[in-house]
Amino acid sequence: MNAPQILDNALDAVGNTPLIRLDRIAQQEGLKCNLLAKVEYTSAGGSVKDRIAKAMVLAAERDGKLIPGKSVVIEPTSGNTGIGLAMACAIKGYAVIITMPNKMSLEKEALLRALGAEVVRTPDSAAWDSPESHIGVAQKLQREIPYGIILDQYRNVNNPLAHEFTTGPEIIEAVANTPSTSARPSTQKVDVFIGGAGTGGTISGISRALKKSHNSNCHVVGVDPVGSILALPSKLNNAGEGSAYVVEGIGYDFVPDVLSREPGVVDSWVKTTDAEAFPAVQRIMRSEGLLVGGSSGAALAGALKWLKSEEGRPFAEAKGKNVVVLLADGIRNYMSKDWFLDMTMHAEARPLASVISQVLASK
Ligand code: PMP
């Protein structure tokens, strides 16, 4: 660990997230490989998207595109990129407007407002290229607001580059620096990487970092919700195409430019449902004590599904292979959602409460 130092501002607390063993889940599943989680909720703004927000703002400043006190940064997002941007812009003195579909959590909107951003909600049913979508509304605002600028995470090369230069290398270093022992054998390489895709910047950038300079044989697996169309081969998307899913931040009805379609960047795709993702969130919390959000549950559910597939089984059964799953944000983004309340506060989730009431009543 680096010696602690004073940081200049909150942007210096973006990234540098831990890689944590999911030993209990691996054991429950009978996995022989090392199951490792890149835990992104410890970043200053609470998600993997802080990294790209910081990178896009710094790059726009370098290019002279942002003017403090004048520029209005407008961005369509599922919320987490917005939170990162609002953080960066609070520090640097730019106004922020975030456009975000209705389905995204109240917590994200409240946090954005607390950071000084304005939030415009858009209908979930609007197709990405319609004027009513979060993308369409952002474009309209940009046309009409003087000094309005969209940094555009769907197209901005600094989105995947932020992961190629930070997230990927952090994973590689942690794996390479942890010695192999008889109790904990390790190839000291990343053998498999699994993560969800929204814009696709995370998986594309990390894949490039892993395959270019570290392990060209690393297998990269994308996780895409049923209802979305990002998975390949595209027949994987046929079942449930266009159906709604509650999980936030992954899946789209179009393929963003920053999701690389070059062969060998994403090797395989797995589809997941809400019914798989949300119990997996609870499992990560109760088995591993990690405070992760919905897309992290999808990532774990997708990882376990893949590790049981014909393609994944040889990795699952190999001692010392390192399988890294990216957990993109934290549960504090989702505490008002029904799926979270169902697993915590509602009566059926609280069998102990009734036992305790009986004990107290019998006194
Ligand atoms: N999970 C969550 C919670 C997210 O907010 C996002 C960003 N949309 C992702 C996963 C996917 O990241 P990316 O956009 O880099 O594909």
Percentage of helical residues? 25-40%
Overall structural class, as computed from helix and strand content, comes to: alpha/beta
SS elements, strand count: 10
Rg (CA only): 21 Å
User: Which ions and ligands are bound to the chains?
Assistant: 4'-deoxy-4'-aminopyridoxal-5'-phosphate
Count, helices: 12
Biggest β-sheet, characterized? 6 strands, mixed
State the CATH class of the largest domain.
Answer: Alpha Beta
Mean pLDDT: 97
> Can you tell me the residue ranges where pLDDT is under 50 for at least 5 consecutive residues?
none
- With strands numbered from the N-terminus, the spatial order across the biggest sheet is 1-2-10-7-8-9
H and E order: EHEHEHEHEHEHEHEEHHHEHH
Count of individual domains: 2
Overall 3D geometry?
globular
Strand content: 5-15%
Structural write-up:
The protein is an alpha/beta fold. The protein folds into 2 domains: 10-46 and 160-327, 3-Layer(aba) Sandwich (Rossmann fold), CATH 3.40.50; 48-150, Rossmann fold. 38% of the residues lie in helices and 14% in strands. The chain has 12 helices and 10 strands. It has helices spanning 23-28, 50-62, 80-92, 106-114, 134-144, 158-177, 201-213, 274-288, 294-308, 313-316, 338-344, 351-361, and strands at residues 19-21, 34-39, 72-76, 95-101, 118-122, 148-150, 192-196, 219-225, 268-272, 322-327. The chain has a 6-stranded mixed sheet, sandwiched between helices. Strands 5-4-3-6 form a 4-stranded parallel sheet, with helices on both faces. α6 packs across α7 (201-213). Belongs to the cysteine synthase/cystathionine beta-synthase family. Pathway: Amino-acid biosynthesis; L-cysteine biosynthesis; L-cysteine from L-homocysteine and L-serine: step 1/2. It holds the Pfam family PALP. Its EC number is 4.2.1.22.
